[in-house]
Design goal:
The structure holds two protein chains of two kinds.
Chain A: E1 11-16, H1 20-29, E2 38-43, H2 51-60, E3 64-69, H3 79-97, E4 105-109, H4 115-133
Parallel strand pairs in A: 1-2, 1-3, 3-4
Helix pairs in contact in A: 1-4, 2-3
Chain B: E1 5-10, H1 22-29, E2 35-41, H2 47-59, E3 64-69, H3 72-85, E4 93-97, H4 99-103, H5 110-130, E5 137-140, E6 144-148, H6 152-163, E7 167-172, H7 194-206, E8 211-215, E9 217-225, E10 228-235, E11 245-251, E12 253-256, E13 260-262, E14 278-280, H8 281-290, E15 297-298, E16 301-302, E17 305-312, H9 328-342, E18 347-352, H10 362-370, E19 374-377, E20 385-389, E21 392-399, E22 405-411, E23 413-418, E24 420-422, H11 427-432, E25 459-461, H12 471-489, E26 493-496, E27 501-503, H13 513-517, E28 523-528, E29 531-536, E30 556-558, H14 563-573
Parallel strand pairs in B: 1-2, 1-3, 3-4, 6-7, 6-12, 7-8, 12-25, 14-23, 17-18, 17-23, 18-19
Antiparallel strand pairs in B: 5-26, 9-10, 10-11, 13-24, 15-16, 20-21, 21-22, 27-30, 28-29
Helix pairs in contact in B: 1-5, 2-3, 5-14, 6-7, 6-12, 8-9, 9-10
Classes of the chains: A alpha/beta, B alpha/beta.
């Protein structure tokens, strides 16, 4: 696939209503800047993300997908961590079959106050995606 | 599919429109498929705009409504209610967050912020096209409310809840209740001392049958969510040799009133802990309160000339505490007046950075001036210098109100007017995952519109755990938090979102994987038309969606988060 040179990578974030989305909101409140090409779709729980959605994002032109997972704070129970991990594994298999770099999917558990962690993850992911997909070197 | 959608884009004063070109956003979406109305509004949440929206829904026959404004945590409910007032099902409303995740997050890139806002609104339109009417489920809520913290805020919250006939559990970590208020002697605006005030409130509270007071007790863990929290409490035994008492209580909501710590200057900060004649405001208040006789004596020496250095640990331009601690100007002026009236030959010199005795507290400032107190104002970058000359402590200050004239003052005592800092023990905040602001105090959802609610449903904050407050401000916030906490559970039932899993019966071939994945046992195997399929018990389903990704036939969707909706949003965001 050909990728144009870009200033910022296009990243789709799946956040969760009660846990990670408040952290992303607070990043804005605290004016912790991250690229404006980062878009969030909010869902109830990270373990409910379908691999097909992630693949669809790549097909449509997203450079990366970031799952802002609930981790052990999930209001639906502790099994969320394991199940979100399984979603990532299933997606990785599908990505491999389509020869998509599996590192273009990242996941991190973010609590409701992890604003700085979110911005740090996103900046680092953005750098990786720019380097691997949009570098002219 | 919706084809009469109304879109409203909010300026939020300038919070959004200072960084996002809202008119450009409106123009970019006005011709989107299904959009029949697009407007901008200075404040979408204002009564006038809400009424306009209700009229628009009826006049234009809207079947979907979108507001692009602040976080849905703040106004999703507001606009769902507006939609209902327009006789539309409230779940046909879709919210786009272009403030916290738009204008504020990208205030460094206005073009980028505008472009992002356009995409976010288009994604909301895409979702709105599929948003179907939904109906809420109800569940029983615990009617007991926990108040954590037995200072003035916690006590008043407990009384307020008790008055509302709610069962209250007041949990205080220390062996005695009263918090910092119990430390104080004379209080401003009344002749009542701090400990007298606390004793009066406690006497009232202790007689109430619907209030349980646990002192020496800490909340060790919390499980559950609004309506049904289970708190594990560790209580120190009366007899030290006895084991720690562990109890579990079920509560519907929680008021957090854990208070503040005094700022303690570092060793050497304004010569603190180096020069014996330098103490903090809380130490000075104790000295004045506890001293008897007609002369003020400290460490065997009579005190006559007292210099007060303001804003120590507050309003730091190059430190962590950039905020004003609000109470300290009033507190120190009040204490200085008390000292002057109680003891002979007291001269008060206030070295300040501007006096902030707002509201009725200004009366104290006037009284202090009438009593002859001297006020000199210094600049943050040119603070008073302290020197020890023999047994004397000398302060040199440049008074910016006298054209920077340098004055040297010989003092008997220097009082560092220290403010409030967040509790060092953050265990309660960590346990409930309460967001903190830039000042590190707990953060409310909105300082004006939802000032005691947190993003954690069912948890309110009261008093100085939220930020510096004086006693009356703490009580105001406590009464507000109590009322809000009570309102969550007052009906005895709570509504749950009607977001549940839905099985496509044609696609389902019953493999049982969804049943294994469901943490709530909400999925059962049933035979329908001679075919075994999965059936969702909607009264048990919590809407997590854990069953959806593992279905090999892709037969499961979460209502409100179907593949159609999510993928259509991805299409326009990409």
């Amino acid at each position: 696939m050909n990728f144009k040179l870009k200033k910022n990578a296009k990243i789709l974030v799946f956040s969760t209503e009660k846990i990670s989305d408040p952290a992303i909101d607070m990043a804005g409140l605290l004016k912790l800047h991250y690229p404006p090409t980062v878009y969030t779709i909010t869902i109830p729980c990270s373990s409910g993300i379908k691999p097909a959605w992630i693949l669809h994002a790549y097909e449509k032109g997203f450079d990366g997908v970031f799952i802002a997972a609930d981790g052990t704070d999930c209001i639906f129970g502790e099994s969320c961590t394991e199940k979100t991990g399984k979603v990532v594994s299933m997606t990785h298999e599908l990505m491999k079959s389509k020869e998509i770099d599996t590192a273009r999917l990242r996941m991190a558990a973010l609590c409701s106050v992890c604003s700085e962690a979110f911005v740090k993850h996103i900046r680092s992911f953005n750098e990786y995606l720019l380097k691997t997909l949009h570098s002219d070197s | 599919m919706k084809n009469r959608i109304g879109v409203y884009i909010c300026h939020c004063g300038g919070n959004i429109s200072d960084y996002v070109d809202v008119e450009k956003v409106r123009q970019a979406v006005e011709h989107e498929e299904g959009v029949v109305l697009s407007k901008t509004s200075m404040f979408a949440c204002s009564d006038s705009n809400q009424n306009e929206m209700v009229n628009d829904i009826k006049e234009f026959g809207l079947d979907g409504v979108i507001v692009a404004s602040c976080s849905p945590k703040l106004h999703l409910t507001t606009f769902r209610n507006v939609t209902e007032r327009g006789d539309l099902n409230k779940y046909t409303y879709v919210h786009a967050n272009i403030r916290e995740q738009g204008s504020w997050a990208h205030s460094d890139d206005t073009d980028g912020a505008t472009e992002k806002a356009i995409h976010l609104v288009k994604a909301a339109i895409a979702k709105s096209r599929y948003a179907e009417p939904l109906y809420t489920n109800q569940f029983e809520a615990e009617k007991t409310i926990a108040v954590i913290g037995g200072g003035i805020a916690g006590l008043k919250a407990a009384i307020s809840l008790s008055d509302k006939k709610s069962t209250v559990i007041l949990i205080e970590k220390n062996d005695k209740i009263g918090g910092h208020t119990a430390e104080w002697g004379d209080l401003f605006m009344s002749d009542e001392k701090g400990n007298e005030l606390i004793n009066r409130i406690y006497s009232d509270l202790a007689q109430r049958e619907n209030v349980t007071i646990l002192t020496g007790a800490e909340v060790a863990s919390s499980k559950g969510s609004i309506g049904n929290f289970t708190l594990k409490i560790r209580k120190r035994p009366n007899n030290e040799s006895d084991p720690m008492e562990i109890m579990e209580v079920n509560v519907g909501s929680v008021v957090v009133a854990t208070g503040f710590d005094h700022y303690v200057p570092q060793k050497g900060e304004f010569d603190y802990m180096i020069n014996d004649n330098i103490i903090t405001l809380p130490e000075f208040k104790q000295l004045v309160d506890k001293s008897t006789g007609n002369r003020l004596v400290y460490k065997g020496k009579e005190i006559n000339n007292i210099a007060y250095i303001y804003c120590v640990g507050s309003r730091q331009e190059d430190g962590e505490n950039t905020y004003c601690s609000r109470f300290c100007c009033t507190s120190v002026i009040h204490t200085a007046i008390v000292a002057k009236k109680k003891f002979k030959n007291i001269n008060n010199i206030h070295l300040n950075r501007g006096i902030r005795t707002y509201g009725k507290q200004e009366l104290l400032y006037s009284e202090s001036l009438e009593l002859g107190d001297i006020y000199l104002q210094f600049d943050y970058n040119n603070p008073p210098q302290i020197a020890t000359e023999g047994k004397k402590t000398v302060v040199t200050v440049k008074d910016i109100l006298s054209a920077g004239k340098e004055l040297t003052l010989e003092t008997d005592l220097i009082v560092l007017v220290t403010g409030m800092v967040p509790r060092a023990d953050q265990s309660i905040g960590t346990m409930f995952k309460l967001p903190k602001g830039r000042d590190k105090f707990f953060n409310e959802i909105h300082m004006k519109l939802r000032p005691v609610e947190t993003v954690i449903d069912g948890i309110t904050i009261a008093g100085a755990c939220q930020g510096p407050k004086n006693i009356s401000e703490s009580v105001n916030s406590a009464l507000s938090a109590a009322t809000k906490s009570y309102s969550y559970i007052s009906k005895g039932t709570l509504e749950t979102e009607p977001i549940v899993a839905e099985i496509n019966q044609d696609l389902c071939v019953w493999c049982g994987k969804c049943q294994e994945a469901c943490p709530f046992d909400a999925i059962e195997k049933q035979e329908v038309n001679g075919k075994p399929i999965a059936i969702v018990n909607t009264s048990v389903c919590k809407g997590c969606g854990m069953c959806a990704p593992i279905c090999p036939e892709d037969a499961i969707n979460l209502i409100g988060y179907t593949s159609e909706e999510i993928m259509s949003m991805i299409d326009v965001l990409a």
